[in-house]
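cron nightly-structures :: item 1 of 1
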Amino acid sequence: MIRILKNILLFSLAIILYSCVNNNPKDNLLVSKVQKEIVKPNIIIIVVDDAGYVDFGFMGSEDLETPNIDNLAKDGVFFTDAHVSATVCAPSRAGLITGKYQQRFGFEANGTGDTASGDVGLSDNVETMADVFQKHNYKTIAIGKWHLGATSTDHPNKRGFDEFYGFLGGGRSYFPINNPSKEHMLQQNGKRVEFDGYLTDVLGDRSVDFVEENKDQPFFMYLAYNAVHTPMEAKLIDLEKYKNHPRQHLAAMTWSLDENIGRLRNKLKELNILDNTLIYFLSDNGGAHNNSSKNGPLKGWKGNKFEGGHRVPFIVNWPAKIEGNQKFEGLTSSLDIFSTSLAAAQINKVENLVLDGVNLLPYLLNDKSGNPHQQLYWRKLDEAGARIGDHKLIRLKNFGSVMYNLSSDIGEINNLATKDTNRYNRLSKKLSVWESNMTAPLWAEGKPWEDITYHIHKRLMENKPVLYKAPTDKKVSSSH
Protein backbone atom coordinates (compact mmCIF):
# COMPACT_ATOMS: atom_id res chain seq x y z
CA MET A 1 0.00 0.00 0.00
CA ILE A 2 2.85 2.38 0.85
CA ARG A 3 4.43 1.70 -2.51
CA ILE A 4 1.13 2.40 -4.33
CA LEU A 5 0.66 5.72 -2.48
CA LYS A 6 4.25 6.62 -3.27
CA ASN A 7 3.71 5.96 -6.97
CA ILE A 8 0.46 7.95 -6.96
CA LEU A 9 2.25 10.90 -5.37
CA LEU A 10 5.11 10.62 -7.84
CA PHE A 11 2.69 10.44 -10.75
CA SER A 12 0.82 13.50 -9.46
CA LEU A 13 4.10 15.32 -9.10
CA ALA A 14 5.01 14.42 -12.66
CA ILE A 15 1.70 15.90 -13.90
CA ILE A 16 2.24 19.11 -11.92
CA LEU A 17 5.78 19.45 -13.18
CA TYR A 18 4.70 18.76 -16.73
CA SER A 19 2.06 21.50 -16.57
CA CYS A 20 4.72 23.96 -15.42
CA VAL A 21 7.43 23.02 -17.87
CA ASN A 22 7.21 25.92 -20.36
CA ASN A 23 9.98 24.30 -22.41
CA ASN A 24 12.47 24.51 -19.53
CA PRO A 25 15.09 21.77 -20.11
CA LYS A 26 15.73 21.34 -16.37
CA ASP A 27 12.04 20.76 -15.70
CA ASN A 28 11.91 18.24 -18.54
CA LEU A 29 14.76 16.31 -16.96
CA LEU A 30 12.99 16.29 -13.60
CA VAL A 31 9.74 15.00 -15.12
CA SER A 32 11.68 12.29 -16.94
CA LYS A 33 13.40 11.26 -13.71
CA VAL A 34 10.10 10.99 -11.82
CA GLN A 35 8.48 8.99 -14.63
CA LYS A 36 11.35 6.52 -14.68
CA GLU A 37 11.12 6.00 -10.91
CA ILE A 38 7.43 5.17 -11.22
CA VAL A 39 7.90 2.35 -13.72
CA LYS A 40 11.07 0.73 -12.37
CA PRO A 41 10.16 -2.99 -12.10
CA ASN A 42 11.25 -5.66 -9.68
CA ILE A 43 13.26 -8.44 -11.34
CA ILE A 44 13.06 -12.10 -10.27
CA ILE A 45 14.98 -14.92 -11.98
CA ILE A 46 13.80 -18.37 -10.91
CA VAL A 47 16.32 -21.04 -11.90
CA VAL A 48 15.51 -24.70 -11.27
CA ASP A 49 18.05 -27.48 -11.48
CA ASP A 50 18.19 -30.37 -13.99
CA ALA A 51 14.49 -30.17 -14.90
CA GLY A 52 13.26 -32.11 -17.92
CA TYR A 53 12.10 -30.21 -20.99
CA VAL A 54 8.56 -31.63 -20.81
CA ASP A 55 8.25 -32.00 -17.03
CA PHE A 56 5.82 -29.12 -16.51
CA GLY A 57 2.17 -28.88 -17.40
CA PHE A 58 2.72 -25.92 -19.70
CA MET A 59 5.28 -28.00 -21.61
CA GLY A 60 2.92 -30.95 -21.96
CA SER A 61 3.54 -33.08 -18.87
CA GLU A 62 0.58 -35.28 -17.99
CA ASP A 63 1.97 -36.88 -14.84
CA LEU A 64 3.78 -34.08 -12.96
CA GLU A 65 1.60 -31.44 -11.31
CA THR A 66 2.79 -27.85 -11.65
CA PRO A 67 -0.30 -25.59 -11.38
CA ASN A 68 1.50 -22.49 -10.12
CA ILE A 69 4.26 -22.62 -12.71
CA ASP A 70 1.62 -23.30 -15.37
CA ASN A 71 -0.25 -20.16 -14.28
CA LEU A 72 2.99 -18.20 -14.56
CA ALA A 73 3.24 -19.40 -18.16
CA LYS A 74 -0.45 -18.78 -18.88
CA ASP A 75 -0.23 -15.20 -17.63
CA GLY A 76 3.01 -14.59 -19.52
CA VAL A 77 4.97 -15.96 -22.45
CA PHE A 78 6.46 -19.43 -22.74
CA PHE A 79 9.21 -20.26 -25.22
CA THR A 80 9.61 -23.40 -27.29
CA ASP A 81 13.12 -22.77 -28.68
CA ALA A 82 14.95 -21.38 -25.64
CA HIS A 83 18.45 -22.49 -24.70
CA VAL A 84 21.01 -22.11 -21.97
CA SER A 85 24.65 -21.41 -22.77
CA ALA A 86 25.99 -24.66 -21.28
CA THR A 87 24.73 -28.19 -20.72
CA VAL A 88 25.87 -28.44 -17.09
CA CYS A 89 25.20 -26.42 -13.97
CA ALA A 90 28.14 -24.14 -13.22
CA PRO A 91 29.01 -22.73 -16.68
CA SER A 92 25.31 -22.34 -17.47
CA ARG A 93 24.88 -20.17 -14.39
CA ALA A 94 28.03 -18.22 -15.23
CA GLY A 95 26.60 -17.35 -18.64
CA LEU A 96 23.21 -16.39 -17.24
CA ILE A 97 24.49 -14.14 -14.44
CA THR A 98 26.98 -12.31 -16.71
CA GLY A 99 24.93 -12.18 -19.92
CA LYS A 100 27.89 -13.35 -21.99
CA TYR A 101 29.30 -16.62 -23.23
CA GLN A 102 31.18 -17.96 -20.23
CA GLN A 103 33.94 -19.10 -22.59
CA ARG A 104 34.90 -15.41 -22.85
CA PHE A 105 36.41 -15.71 -19.36
CA GLY A 106 37.43 -19.38 -19.35
CA PHE A 107 34.47 -20.73 -17.30
CA GLU A 108 33.80 -23.65 -19.62
CA ALA A 109 33.73 -26.89 -17.65
CA ASN A 110 31.58 -27.91 -14.71
CA GLY A 111 32.72 -27.11 -11.22
CA THR A 112 34.70 -23.96 -10.45
CA GLY A 113 38.22 -25.29 -10.88
CA ASP A 114 40.24 -28.50 -10.75
CA THR A 115 43.15 -29.82 -8.70
CA ALA A 116 45.70 -27.98 -10.80
CA SER A 117 43.87 -24.66 -11.06
CA GLY A 118 42.19 -24.53 -7.69
CA ASP A 119 38.83 -22.84 -7.13
CA VAL A 120 38.91 -20.28 -9.95
CA GLY A 121 35.24 -19.38 -10.17
CA LEU A 122 34.12 -16.19 -11.88
CA SER A 123 36.85 -13.91 -13.17
CA ASP A 124 37.33 -10.95 -10.86
CA ASN A 125 36.88 -8.48 -13.72
CA VAL A 126 33.53 -9.90 -14.90
CA GLU A 127 30.44 -7.90 -13.98
CA THR A 128 27.27 -9.67 -12.91
CA MET A 129 23.64 -8.62 -13.26
CA ALA A 130 23.58 -8.04 -9.52
CA ASP A 131 26.55 -5.64 -9.79
CA VAL A 132 24.63 -3.50 -12.25
CA PHE A 133 21.32 -3.50 -10.38
CA GLN A 134 23.04 -2.81 -7.09
CA LYS A 135 24.68 0.27 -8.61
CA HIS A 136 21.23 1.44 -9.71
CA ASN A 137 19.74 1.30 -6.22
CA TYR A 138 18.07 -2.09 -6.44
CA LYS A 139 18.06 -4.26 -3.33
CA THR A 140 19.74 -7.50 -4.45
CA ILE A 141 19.56 -11.04 -3.11
CA ALA A 142 20.78 -14.47 -4.24
CA ILE A 143 18.83 -17.38 -2.76
CA GLY A 144 19.75 -21.05 -3.07
CA LYS A 145 22.46 -22.67 -5.15
CA TRP A 146 25.50 -20.56 -6.12
CA HIS A 147 28.10 -22.92 -7.71
CA LEU A 148 30.11 -20.03 -9.15
CA GLY A 149 33.08 -20.16 -6.79
CA ALA A 150 33.64 -20.54 -3.05
CA THR A 151 36.63 -18.25 -2.53
CA SER A 152 36.21 -14.90 -0.78
CA THR A 153 36.24 -12.93 -4.05
CA ASP A 154 33.52 -15.12 -5.54
CA HIS A 155 31.14 -15.03 -2.60
CA PRO A 156 27.80 -13.58 -3.75
CA ASN A 157 28.22 -10.66 -1.35
CA LYS A 158 31.29 -9.71 -3.43
CA ARG A 159 29.46 -10.18 -6.74
CA GLY A 160 26.72 -7.59 -6.37
CA PHE A 161 24.36 -9.23 -3.90
CA ASP A 162 23.40 -7.37 -0.73
CA GLU A 163 22.29 -10.67 0.71
CA PHE A 164 23.14 -14.30 0.07
CA TYR A 165 20.86 -16.93 1.57
CA GLY A 166 21.95 -20.26 0.19
CA PHE A 167 24.88 -22.63 -0.26
CA LEU A 168 28.06 -22.24 -2.29
CA GLY A 169 28.46 -25.71 -3.80
CA GLY A 170 26.77 -27.59 -6.60
CA GLY A 171 24.42 -29.71 -4.52
CA ARG A 172 23.52 -30.90 -1.04
CA SER A 173 20.89 -32.79 0.94
CA TYR A 174 17.42 -31.25 1.12
CA PHE A 175 17.40 -31.97 4.84
CA PRO A 176 19.64 -30.64 7.65
CA ILE A 177 23.29 -31.74 7.64
CA ASN A 178 25.37 -32.20 10.78
CA ASN A 179 28.70 -30.35 10.53
CA PRO A 180 28.35 -29.33 6.86
CA SER A 181 31.34 -28.19 4.82
CA LYS A 182 31.72 -24.58 3.74
CA GLU A 183 30.31 -25.46 0.31
CA HIS A 184 27.32 -27.40 1.68
CA MET A 185 26.42 -25.14 4.59
CA LEU A 186 23.22 -23.13 4.32
CA GLN A 187 24.30 -19.60 5.13
CA GLN A 188 23.16 -16.02 5.28
CA ASN A 189 25.99 -13.68 4.29
CA GLY A 190 28.63 -16.13 5.49
CA LYS A 191 26.96 -17.09 8.76
CA ARG A 192 25.59 -20.60 9.07
CA VAL A 193 21.81 -20.98 9.12
CA GLU A 194 20.55 -24.02 10.99
CA PHE A 195 17.13 -25.12 9.82
CA ASP A 196 14.49 -27.73 10.37
CA GLY A 197 12.38 -29.16 7.61
CA TYR A 198 12.86 -29.26 3.85
CA LEU A 199 15.32 -27.03 2.01
CA THR A 200 12.98 -26.14 -0.86
CA ASP A 201 10.53 -24.76 1.71
CA VAL A 202 13.29 -22.92 3.57
CA LEU A 203 14.45 -21.19 0.38
CA GLY A 204 10.83 -20.43 -0.48
CA ASP A 205 10.31 -18.91 2.95
CA ARG A 206 13.22 -16.55 2.46
CA SER A 207 11.98 -15.48 -0.99
CA VAL A 208 8.59 -14.55 0.47
CA ASP A 209 10.06 -12.75 3.49
CA PHE A 210 12.48 -10.79 1.31
CA VAL A 211 9.62 -9.51 -0.85
CA GLU A 212 7.71 -8.47 2.27
CA GLU A 213 10.77 -6.66 3.62
CA ASN A 214 11.47 -4.81 0.35
CA LYS A 215 7.98 -4.15 -1.00
CA ASP A 216 8.56 -0.39 -1.06
CA GLN A 217 11.72 -0.41 -3.18
CA PRO A 218 12.80 -2.11 -6.41
CA PHE A 219 14.61 -5.38 -5.93
CA PHE A 220 16.54 -7.95 -7.95
CA MET A 221 16.16 -11.57 -6.81
CA TYR A 222 18.17 -14.48 -8.17
CA LEU A 223 16.21 -17.47 -6.84
CA ALA A 224 18.18 -20.62 -7.64
CA TYR A 225 16.44 -23.72 -6.32
CA ASN A 226 18.50 -26.92 -6.26
CA ALA A 227 15.34 -28.91 -7.00
CA VAL A 228 15.08 -31.22 -8.88
CA HIS A 229 18.78 -32.09 -8.76
CA THR A 230 19.85 -35.26 -6.94
CA PRO A 231 19.76 -36.49 -4.22
CA MET A 232 16.15 -37.48 -4.83
CA GLU A 233 14.74 -36.47 -1.46
CA ALA A 234 11.23 -35.28 -0.67
CA LYS A 235 8.97 -34.65 2.31
CA LEU A 236 7.03 -37.63 3.63
CA ILE A 237 3.71 -35.88 3.06
CA ASP A 238 4.55 -35.38 -0.62
CA LEU A 239 5.90 -38.89 -1.03
CA GLU A 240 2.62 -40.17 0.37
CA LYS A 241 0.70 -37.97 -2.07
CA TYR A 242 2.54 -39.64 -4.95
CA LYS A 243 2.98 -43.12 -3.44
CA ASN A 244 1.68 -44.83 -6.59
CA HIS A 245 3.46 -42.55 -9.04
CA PRO A 246 6.09 -44.19 -11.31
CA ARG A 247 8.34 -41.16 -10.75
CA GLN A 248 7.43 -40.78 -7.09
CA HIS A 249 10.40 -38.78 -5.82
CA LEU A 250 10.56 -36.45 -8.82
CA ALA A 251 6.80 -35.84 -8.65
CA ALA A 252 7.03 -35.03 -4.94
CA MET A 253 10.03 -32.73 -5.36
CA THR A 254 8.39 -30.95 -8.29
CA TRP A 255 5.17 -30.46 -6.32
CA SER A 256 7.09 -28.80 -3.47
CA LEU A 257 8.97 -26.60 -5.92
CA ASP A 258 5.71 -25.53 -7.53
CA GLU A 259 4.10 -24.80 -4.14
CA ASN A 260 6.91 -22.43 -3.19
CA ILE A 261 6.86 -20.59 -6.49
CA GLY A 262 3.13 -20.19 -5.98
CA ARG A 263 3.68 -18.78 -2.48
CA LEU A 264 6.10 -16.20 -3.86
CA ARG A 265 3.71 -15.11 -6.57
CA ASN A 266 0.82 -14.92 -4.12
CA LYS A 267 2.88 -12.66 -1.85
CA LEU A 268 3.66 -10.35 -4.77
CA LYS A 269 -0.05 -10.23 -5.56
CA GLU A 270 -1.00 -9.61 -1.93
CA LEU A 271 1.39 -6.65 -1.81
CA ASN A 272 0.06 -5.26 -5.11
CA ILE A 273 3.47 -5.45 -6.76
CA LEU A 274 2.97 -8.51 -8.97
CA ASP A 275 2.01 -6.49 -12.05
CA ASN A 276 5.25 -4.54 -11.97
CA THR A 277 7.48 -7.55 -11.33
CA LEU A 278 9.34 -9.10 -14.24
CA ILE A 279 9.70 -12.84 -13.58
CA TYR A 280 11.81 -15.33 -15.53
CA PHE A 281 11.56 -19.08 -15.06
CA LEU A 282 13.96 -21.62 -16.56
CA SER A 283 16.06 -24.71 -15.90
CA ASP A 284 19.85 -24.43 -15.78
CA ASN A 285 20.21 -27.25 -18.34
CA GLY A 286 18.34 -30.24 -19.68
CA GLY A 287 16.98 -33.06 -17.58
CA ALA A 288 19.61 -35.29 -16.01
CA HIS A 289 20.00 -39.02 -16.61
CA ASN A 290 19.70 -39.81 -12.89
CA ASN A 291 16.63 -37.92 -11.64
CA SER A 292 13.83 -39.56 -13.69
CA SER A 293 13.33 -36.41 -15.76
CA LYS A 294 11.98 -36.50 -19.30
CA ASN A 295 13.09 -34.43 -22.28
CA GLY A 296 10.27 -35.52 -24.58
CA PRO A 297 11.20 -35.54 -28.27
CA LEU A 298 14.68 -34.18 -27.64
CA LYS A 299 17.78 -36.31 -28.01
CA GLY A 300 20.27 -36.45 -25.17
CA TRP A 301 20.24 -35.02 -21.65
CA LYS A 302 22.24 -32.85 -19.28
CA GLY A 303 25.93 -32.78 -20.20
CA ASN A 304 25.81 -33.21 -23.98
CA LYS A 305 25.32 -30.95 -26.98
CA PHE A 306 22.16 -32.54 -28.28
CA GLU A 307 18.93 -30.58 -27.75
CA GLY A 308 18.12 -32.47 -24.56
CA GLY A 309 21.20 -30.94 -22.97
CA HIS A 310 20.51 -27.25 -23.51
CA ARG A 311 16.97 -26.61 -24.79
CA VAL A 312 14.97 -25.71 -21.68
CA PRO A 313 11.50 -24.63 -20.52
CA PHE A 314 11.48 -20.83 -20.31
CA ILE A 315 8.86 -18.31 -19.16
CA VAL A 316 8.81 -14.52 -19.11
CA ASN A 317 6.03 -12.92 -17.07
CA TRP A 318 5.46 -9.17 -16.58
CA PRO A 319 1.71 -8.42 -16.32
CA ALA A 320 2.04 -4.63 -16.48
CA LYS A 321 3.82 -4.75 -19.84
CA ILE A 322 3.59 -8.14 -21.53
CA GLU A 323 0.31 -9.65 -22.65
CA GLY A 324 -0.27 -13.14 -21.31
CA ASN A 325 -1.24 -16.41 -22.96
CA GLN A 326 1.52 -16.18 -25.56
CA LYS A 327 3.79 -18.80 -27.08
CA PHE A 328 7.08 -17.61 -28.58
CA GLU A 329 8.89 -19.85 -31.05
CA GLY A 330 11.91 -17.71 -31.90
CA LEU A 331 15.46 -18.78 -31.10
CA THR A 332 16.22 -17.50 -27.60
CA SER A 333 18.99 -17.80 -25.02
CA SER A 334 19.36 -17.46 -21.26
CA LEU A 335 21.99 -14.86 -22.16
CA ASP A 336 19.06 -12.60 -23.11
CA ILE A 337 17.91 -12.23 -19.50
CA PHE A 338 20.61 -9.64 -18.68
CA SER A 339 19.92 -7.41 -21.69
CA THR A 340 16.15 -7.72 -21.31
CA SER A 341 16.27 -6.82 -17.63
CA LEU A 342 18.40 -3.74 -18.28
CA ALA A 343 15.89 -2.56 -20.86
CA ALA A 344 12.95 -3.22 -18.54
CA ALA A 345 14.60 -1.20 -15.77
CA GLN A 346 15.59 1.56 -18.24
CA ILE A 347 19.25 1.13 -17.34
CA ASN A 348 21.66 2.11 -20.09
CA LYS A 349 24.40 -0.44 -20.74
CA VAL A 350 27.84 1.05 -20.20
CA GLU A 351 30.05 0.96 -23.27
CA ASN A 352 32.62 -1.54 -21.97
CA LEU A 353 30.05 -4.10 -20.78
CA VAL A 354 30.07 -6.94 -23.32
CA LEU A 355 26.75 -8.79 -23.54
CA ASP A 356 26.00 -11.63 -25.96
CA GLY A 357 22.27 -11.66 -25.23
CA VAL A 358 19.62 -9.45 -26.80
CA ASN A 359 16.68 -7.48 -25.43
CA LEU A 360 13.59 -9.67 -25.82
CA LEU A 361 11.05 -6.95 -25.03
CA PRO A 362 10.53 -5.74 -28.62
CA TYR A 363 9.69 -9.32 -29.62
CA LEU A 364 7.36 -9.84 -26.69
CA LEU A 365 5.62 -6.50 -27.21
CA ASN A 366 5.15 -7.26 -30.92
CA ASP A 367 7.38 -4.38 -31.98
CA LYS A 368 9.70 -6.86 -33.69
CA SER A 369 9.18 -10.22 -35.36
CA GLY A 370 11.45 -13.13 -36.17
CA ASN A 371 14.30 -14.70 -34.21
CA PRO A 372 16.14 -12.84 -31.46
CA HIS A 373 19.18 -14.89 -32.47
CA GLN A 374 20.34 -16.14 -35.84
CA GLN A 375 23.08 -18.21 -34.23
CA LEU A 376 24.07 -19.71 -30.88
CA TYR A 377 27.18 -21.62 -29.82
CA TRP A 378 28.22 -24.14 -27.18
CA ARG A 379 31.53 -25.65 -26.13
CA LYS A 380 32.73 -27.76 -23.23
CA LEU A 381 36.24 -29.11 -23.65
CA ASP A 382 36.13 -31.83 -26.36
CA GLU A 383 32.53 -31.16 -27.42
CA ALA A 384 31.15 -28.14 -29.26
CA GLY A 385 28.01 -27.12 -31.09
CA ALA A 386 26.63 -24.39 -33.34
CA ARG A 387 23.06 -23.44 -34.20
CA ILE A 388 22.63 -21.35 -37.36
CA GLY A 389 19.00 -20.83 -38.32
CA ASP A 390 17.32 -24.23 -38.33
CA HIS A 391 20.57 -26.18 -38.65
CA LYS A 392 22.68 -27.57 -35.85
CA LEU A 393 26.29 -28.77 -35.91
CA ILE A 394 27.82 -30.96 -33.19
CA ARG A 395 31.57 -31.56 -33.19
CA LEU A 396 33.53 -34.10 -31.19
CA LYS A 397 37.30 -33.69 -31.02
CA ASN A 398 39.26 -36.38 -32.88
CA PHE A 399 36.05 -37.99 -34.10
CA GLY A 400 34.18 -35.65 -36.42
CA SER A 401 30.95 -33.68 -36.72
CA VAL A 402 27.28 -34.21 -37.45
CA MET A 403 24.66 -31.77 -38.71
CA TYR A 404 20.88 -31.77 -38.40
CA ASN A 405 17.94 -29.74 -39.67
CA LEU A 406 15.95 -29.15 -36.48
CA SER A 407 12.87 -27.87 -38.31
CA SER A 408 12.26 -31.37 -39.68
CA ASP A 409 14.36 -33.47 -37.31
CA ILE A 410 14.01 -32.26 -33.73
CA GLY A 411 15.25 -35.67 -32.54
CA GLU A 412 18.62 -35.14 -34.30
CA ILE A 413 18.67 -38.49 -36.07
CA ASN A 414 19.40 -37.71 -39.73
CA ASN A 415 22.97 -36.59 -40.18
CA LEU A 416 23.23 -34.17 -43.12
CA ALA A 417 26.97 -33.51 -42.85
CA THR A 418 27.84 -35.44 -46.00
CA LYS A 419 24.60 -34.58 -47.86
CA ASP A 420 24.67 -30.81 -47.53
CA THR A 421 28.41 -30.14 -47.52
CA ASN A 422 28.21 -26.44 -48.37
CA ARG A 423 26.05 -25.72 -45.35
CA TYR A 424 28.13 -28.06 -43.21
CA ASN A 425 31.29 -26.17 -44.14
CA ARG A 426 29.62 -22.81 -43.38
CA LEU A 427 28.54 -23.96 -39.93
CA SER A 428 31.99 -25.41 -39.21
CA LYS A 429 33.63 -22.13 -40.20
CA LYS A 430 31.24 -20.05 -38.10
CA LEU A 431 31.95 -22.24 -35.08
CA SER A 432 35.69 -21.76 -35.61
CA VAL A 433 35.30 -18.00 -35.91
CA TRP A 434 33.28 -17.89 -32.69
CA GLU A 435 35.92 -19.96 -30.91
CA SER A 436 38.64 -17.57 -32.03
CA ASN A 437 36.98 -14.88 -29.92
CA MET A 438 36.78 -17.05 -26.81
CA THR A 439 39.34 -17.94 -24.14
CA ALA A 440 40.82 -21.38 -23.52
CA PRO A 441 39.15 -23.20 -20.60
CA LEU A 442 40.80 -22.48 -17.26
CA TRP A 443 40.12 -25.94 -15.85
CA ALA A 444 38.97 -29.42 -16.86
CA GLU A 445 36.42 -31.80 -15.34
CA GLY A 446 38.74 -34.72 -14.70
CA LYS A 447 39.39 -37.74 -16.86
CA PRO A 448 36.58 -40.01 -15.54
CA TRP A 449 33.82 -37.56 -16.48
CA GLU A 450 35.56 -36.38 -19.65
CA ASP A 451 35.80 -39.98 -20.87
CA ILE A 452 32.15 -40.65 -20.08
CA THR A 453 31.03 -37.47 -21.83
CA TYR A 454 33.12 -38.35 -24.87
CA HIS A 455 31.61 -41.84 -24.97
CA ILE A 456 28.06 -40.48 -24.74
CA HIS A 457 28.57 -38.00 -27.58
CA LYS A 458 30.19 -40.56 -29.83
CA ARG A 459 27.40 -43.10 -29.35
CA LEU A 460 24.63 -40.52 -29.80
CA MET A 461 26.28 -39.17 -32.94
CA GLU A 462 26.24 -42.73 -34.30
CA ASN A 463 22.60 -43.24 -33.18
CA LYS A 464 23.73 -46.07 -30.96
CA PRO A 465 22.67 -46.88 -27.38
CA VAL A 466 24.79 -45.23 -24.70
CA LEU A 467 26.53 -47.87 -22.61
CA TYR A 468 27.66 -45.74 -19.66
CA LYS A 469 26.21 -42.49 -18.30
CA ALA A 470 28.43 -41.92 -15.26
CA PRO A 471 31.91 -43.00 -14.14
CA THR A 472 30.33 -45.27 -11.54
CA ASP A 473 28.51 -47.23 -14.26
CA LYS A 474 31.61 -48.69 -15.86
CA LYS A 475 35.16 -47.58 -16.60
CA VAL A 476 35.72 -46.27 -20.08
CA SER A 477 39.00 -46.99 -21.83
CA SER A 478 41.51 -44.16 -22.07
CA SER A 479 41.15 -44.25 -25.86
CA HIS A 480 37.45 -43.35 -25.48
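cron nightly-structures :: done
The CA atoms of residues 124 and 153 lie 7 Å apart.
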